[in-house]
Amino acid sequence: MNDAKLLGVRLLVAYLVDARAELRRFRPDGSPDGVVELPGLGTAGGFRGDPEDPEAFFAFTSFDAPTTVYRYDVATGARTVWAEPKAAGDLGRIAVEQRFCRSKDGTRVPIFVVRRRDTAQPAPTLLYAYDGFGISMAPFYSPAWTAWVEQGGVVAVANVRGGGEYGRAWHEAGRRERKQTVFDDVIATAEHLIAEGVTPADGLTIQGESHGGLLVGAVVNQRPELFAAALPGVGVMDMLRFDRFTGGQLWVGEFGSPRDEAGFLTLRAYSPYHTIAEGKRYPAILATTADTDDRVVPLHTFKYVAALQAAEIGPRPRLVRVETRAGHGMGKPIDKTIEEVADLWAFAARWTGLGAGLMTGEV
After folding, report:
1. What pTM did the predictor assign?
2. Which of these three, 83, 103, 137, is where a domain ends?
3. Strands 10-17 and 55-62, how do they pair?
4. 122: cis peptide before it, omega within 30°?
């Protein structure tokens, strides 16, 4: 349960069901009273109103919808837009669907797939994952992802273990000595997208930031052949020294400690810096960091990229993009964000084949 409020003599409750919102109604005695119909697969909540007044308000967002405030008549069930931002482009031609795949151990993993309705599949695909620290990857609007989709690409968001999509047990299943299940879930998602024809075998980019950057580095080391390109952002790449810098000691609860034998062995087994697979053909990699990041210090990315460049892992480029006078991401000026996204998408488009479509006008 994410939110609840007594409105119009009904209890309105927002639940997270398969990583998406479901709004349910209950009578004062606790008996069910139906659901609140939503505009699509998304995230909803933030109820506002008076207990006795049938007029209620809530917010909704999704991959094809910036955060919009809806007016809801509790008595009649009517839902109308009360306030919505203007967005560039025609969001009505974007489709959001949910799929499921099976991970290595049989666990059912949700995947959101976002594309233009007229985009033929398979199409170059951006696979994004974060899931760590119990944080859920519920649907939200991203202008950057919309730009990729508008050019004929597909965005896939994996709700893998380590997040909070199914409560504490889902987080615990991807924590400390069980962190490998997170990588198994991402690998299963990539295999599903290729097998089901969402993306061509040579058209998949994997992206993640912070914990997600760690995830990208670990997964690419384990299965480099699955990806045409990789975009690890501000990632925790040296898992044997993460606790020695800035706030890294606070992450021991999530990762375990490299200072005890069991923790060291677990971390060493997937640390992106330490597990680069010599002799395998790697995707093109563009890692990003910032020179004043005091959360995940840039030395993680510097060491990782240096190790990639020194390794015999095929001819594609392994580059680092360093943002100056910037930190971990929050509060970055819009112009810096636009420049970074433009570089990332151009790089990914070049190596997934979307770039060829852009150059010929065929998207």
Report:
1. 0.94
2. 83
3. unpaired
4. yes
Cα angle vertex 355, ends 361, 332, to 5°? 115
83, 117, 136: which is the final residue of a domain? 83
- Known active-site residue 171: no
**Nearest CA-CA partner of 154 in 109, 205, 226:** 205
Specify whether the CB–CB gap between 51 and 7 falls below 8 A. Answer: yes
Tell me whether residue 192 is one of the annotated catalytic residues: no
Q: Kindly name the residue from 210, 211, 257, 300 that is annotated as catalytic.
A: 210
Per residue in 298-307, pLDDT tens?
999 999 999 9
Question: Domain residues for 108?
Answer: 91-360
At residue 80's C-alpha, the angle toward residues 76 and 86, to 5°, is 170
pLDDT in tens, 143-194: 999 999 999 999 999 999 999 999 999 999 999 999 999 999 999 999 999 9
